[in-house]
Amino acid sequence: MKFRLPLLLSIAILSAFGAYSATRAFDPPKSSGGSTPAKDTDNPNSKDEAPESDSSKTDEKSKKPSNLGKSKKMSDPFNRLTSDEAYVILRKGTEAREKGYTNTKSAGTYICKRCNAPLYNSTDKFDSRCGWPSFDDQIKGAVKHQLETDGTGRIEIVCKNCGGHLGHVFEGEQLTKKNTRHCVNSISMKLIAEGKELPNVIKADDEEDAAKAAEKKESKPTKESPILKSGK
User: Is 183 annotated in the active site?
Assistant: First the structure.
């Protein structure tokens, strides 16, 4: 009996200590003020704030004005062309017969579709029955004549200001007293009716012209070039 009493007392003490430990294990940690610390959502400098995502940075960059339109304007200051106009004017294509101004007899001035430079007067237009607008003369200094690059021997005509393709010129056909026929694509021109003000001619920027001139100058061989020295 003497040994059973201390044993029972020891068991009771151990049971009480175990119950107390289990209760502490489920209690959340408390701050010095006795309450659970909360996350500081009002502080912008809080360390728990989520870092800015790459997508948000991209969105901010996208809001900045783009220089794409400006660059395009600097590289090509002329009138915007449709795909059909570009095919003829820039890639030297040929439109179908009996289109546009082929049979037009209205008075006025025909200007370049790309740069507005005056090309032909309606008084020089005649019916050649070739299927395209025909003129036996041009406005002085407006049209450049050059040998066609396709090997046909034809003479190509282009706008002297912007180089846009117009068509071809033929001589010796005895169709008019001037014995000349400018066969022009209607899509390369625009008719400004007589009495109406002509639009301003669009020219390339001076800086662009200077850059092209400098590039052309640098591409030429100098006197010290070994090619010239060797005589090849």
Answer: yes
